[in-house]
Every structure is written in C-alpha cells, then in structure tokens.
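Bug report

Summary: structure tokens for Nucleotidase differ between web form and batch submission.
Environment: batch mode, default settings.
Steps: 1) Submit the sequence below via batch. 2) Compare with the web form result.

Sequence submitted:
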Amino acid sequence: MSNDVRHETDEILGSGTTRRQLLAMAAVGGAGLATVGTAGSARAAGTGAGTDGETVTLTVIGTTDLHGNVYNWDYFKNAEYTDSKGNDIGVAKASTIIKAIRAEVGAASCITLDAGDTIQGTPLAYYYAKIDPITAGATHPMAAAMNQVGYDAAALGNHEYNYGLDTLRAFESQLNFPLLSANSVDWNTGAPVFKPWVIKTIKLEDRKPIKVGILGLVTPGVAIWDKANVEGKVKFPGIIEQAKVFVPRLKAAGADVVIVSCHSGTNGSSSWGDALPYVENASALLAEQVPDIDAILVGHAHVEIPEKLVTNKQTGKQVVLSEPYYWGMRVTRMSLDLQKIRGQWQVVHSSSMLYNSNVVHEDTTVTEAVAAAHQKVLTYVNGVIGTCTEAMSAATSRYQDTAAMDFINFVQGDAVKAALVGTPQEGLPVLSIAAPFNKFAAIPQGDVTVRDVAGLYIYDNTLLGIVLTGAEIKDYLEKSATYFKQVSGTGPFTADQVTNAATPTAPNGTPDYNYDIMGGLDAALTYKIDIAQAPGSRILDLSYAGSPVGADAQFVVAINNYRQSGGGGFPHVVTAPVVYNRQIEIRQLLIDWASAHKVIDPPSFSHLDWKLVSNGVDIQVTG
C-alpha cells in the first residue's frame, strides 16, 4: 500500500483506531475475523509461485438496497437517522467499512459489489428523478457517492425501473462501473438490454491471475410492479432460467470464479401468487440448482444474512450466500479461498460475515461529493406548504382507523373522482385503498412542510382507478385481513400479538405494506374485521351509504400501481378495468393537495371506516 492510500484510510477511520480494531468492533456475525482477517492474508502468500496447491484469498465486499441513502439522515424527520436497534444508514458509513476491509487485506484482492435498489427511496433520490432530473443534466447523488466508493459492478434492482428507462440510462451513464442484469431482456429479441456480466481480473505477482466473473440478476417482479414503464420494452425471465444460460457463458469466457449479485431474497417465496411463472426470492434455489456458482450477494428482501451455505445438487459443492441489511446498515464480506488444482484456480473454502455501519463515522470523500445535492434537498423538503388544524399520526394505523390514513385515501379518491367527470364511470361511487407502510409518519398541528406530507407516503407509487364489484371488494378485504393473526378475546393486545401474520406467501410475517385499508369519500364505506375468525371469513357488516354492499354493485377504486399490477397477490385487481391512469405519484398528489388547499383539516375528511373486533365485539390494541 502506498503512503498516500494509507494516509487517506487513516483519516477515514480517525486517529487512535486501527483498521483491525474497527473491523472487530463492527463485526456482527458469520465466519469471523479469525477466518478472514490476518489468516486470510497469510494464506494469500501461497506455497510457491505458479505451482499446484498454492492458495490465495479473494475478498468480496457487498452492499444492497441502499435506496437513495448517502448520509445517516432521515429527511422525513429532518434529523440524524435513528431506530430502536441503534442502526446507522448510508453509503458514506458503508464506505468507511469497505475501505477498511480493502486496507486490511489489500485492495488488489477485493471485489466490491452492490445488489440493487439504488435510485429510489428518499427525497434525495426523488428530487434528482423528478424535481431536478438527471435526464436534464443533473448528476445523481447516488452515482456521485458510489463512484467515490469504487464499486466494481452493481446489479439492477426492481426499484431501478421506477422512474422509467430514460432515467435509468442516465444513471447508468454517470457510473464508473457497470450495471448488470442478465434477465432484463429486450421485449422482441430476448437479448439483455443491460450488460449481463463482467469479468474482473485479479493480478497476482508471479502467479496466474484470477478471473472473477460477476453476473447480475433481478427479481422478475419488475414486469408486474413497473408494468407501465417496461411493457413492450423489457421482459424479465426467471432468475434460475437465465443463470442456466449465462453461468456457462461466463465459464466459457474464462471465469475461474463466478459471483452472482442477485436482487432476490433467499426464502423461495413470491408475492404475486400465480401472476408470474417465476420465483420472486430465488437466490437459495439459484445456488442449489445452477452449477459453477461460487458465491451470491443477495438483495431485495431487506433481511440480514451473515452467512448461508447452500449445497449445489449437481456438483455437491457449497455456495456461500450473504445479504447485508438494507440502506447501508450492514456491509457483507465474503472470503473465497482459491487453490490452484491442475493449473486452474478453484474455490476450496468460502465464508462470509457482516459489519455494522453504526460503529464508524462517514467517509468524508463521499459526503463531500454529495454535499451540495444534500443541502438543496434539505431546502426543498423543509419548505412550508400549508398548515394543519390537528396533529395526525400514523403510529397506530396498522390496527386502528386514523386520520393520517384517511387523508391518503381522501386525496387519492378525490383525484380519481375528479378525473371521472365526463366519463361513463362518472356516477359510480369512489373508494380508495392505502397501506400503513410508515408507522413513524406524522403531520403536526400548525405549519406543514413537504417532508411532513411526504413522510406519509415513502414510496414512489403512482395512482390508478379500477372498477370492482361488491363481491370483489369483499374478496379484496378478506385478502387484506390475512395480515392479522387469529386471536380471541377483547384484549388488551399488543400490536405484535395481532399484526404481521405469517402466511404461505409471507412465511416470515405479512409486511405492513401488504395490508390495505379501504375507505370511501364522505364516510360512505364501513366494515369490521373479526380476527377471531379464520382468514377468509373476517369481513363483517360491509356497507356503503348505510346499506349492505351488493355483490353486483360497481365501484371505482383508487389504487397504487404496485398493487394494481399484482404486488401482494390481491384478487381481481390485475384484470379489473382501468378507468384512470395518469402516471402521477401519490406522494406528489398529497404535496400538491396540501399546497393548493393550504389548510389540512382532519375533521373534514376523517371518519370511522373500519375497526377490529373479536366475535363481533370491539377489541383493544395498544402500541
């Protein structure tokens, strides 16, 4: 290592803390430093230049699901990020870990990858997609940050497609490394529309270099979730199916090692039911079914997997998988021991672990590269756009009707109703659905800023209107009610005792974003959810304007594009007639409504649409 590089690393880590001490503090599970630290460096010395039996260690460093987070900052709270587990977030924190690992083992023997979902998720990312778009010449802050880190490659995630192909291509052009996706293919020809793989050469002094093949794959759900952006342009074959095509091509091109950066979880589940013939979370199946893969950096599922070893059915060899926690909270480190066997490098042992970003400070080379953009977005999100007569909080929205959710449903329904004027559906009653996916959201009494309103809706979903019958509405609500665990009695229950039920498609628990709350304009729709009953028999007293909802009655339902495209596997919505689709982000609709009306008055739109009961009796749920 040169003196200049060592000086830069010491500045990042701070005086008084060695690299090894920092990494030891940050280690959170997996193989451990005894396997991959000094011992790895010793193995790299080998047993003789150019001879069979010599061993070297390749280090693969990974992040995933950064979702537009550069700083350890919560734009919706206008404060440093914090959560109940003490996590820190952002590329700048992860960069400190990444550079410490490189300094520990030698940068020349490291490969640094990301597994996707990069350009969506924060106001910082939204601003440079929609307000000052990179398609008009601005530099995306995630490109500026990731270039400072020095990634070798990144897989596309499904959220990369949220803003359309033009924005994605502009982002790609700003990177110093390739975006990979072997299963994003041309609609007509089936050829990859992004680079499917890349081979990086690790040069070794007096020894045969190691050729590392890196393959990118994305969950096929893009075809559902971003149908409006990709239909007629890009198709998304299955992960396993495409890997069976491209892994052999990588080996034929000379790859000694094959690493997959895979934006797909490990549990084999799919959120879309039978809407697609492919598996959403296929990384473990990929390791099991496709030979010649040595390691998989996992993304998409937002879970923490220090190390998972899967045996390939065909070769009997173990494949190491690791998924770092999202938003830069963790960094993966995989160690692949390679031995020269009959003149060819082969992986003979692999292990992995994670590092926690909360023990380090931010890499200033990253924060300085994004400082101007960060300040511009702070000014934007903290701008006052109106006032609110009463405080609204989403904290209890998962189990209790709240004004915060009523506001979302009111604005969505109002927008669709206004657009129906002059159409055949003008006279149909309008309903709306929304999910309580940000329980920390709150709008204060008094001045309201962009960030207050945006915090209610943290995803970049767009609004549609579809037509459903009364029977279909009932089916939809029954599906939504599977979110609740089956309990009897009136409580009091904690929220955890009744919410996030495990289902066949969500074995680790139904996420909040797959629970939909339905409401109507003018307090017209009411229903009860009886969680003492089995799923499928929970919706009681479903009424509209005081009368039971008839099976053949027709309603227009305001719904987001994720749900309408099949996300979550809700019934009827994919095939329902679409009567409104102007590609307007719901978050922006909320901001625009508050800006136009100046006053948010909860009593004017908030009403009791639904409640939880047990055998027909109201229950009590606490936070």
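Above is the batch result. After comparison, the two runs are identical; trailing whitespace caused the diff. The chain is about 30% helix and 30% strand. Residues 363 and 544 are 56 Å apart (CA to CA).
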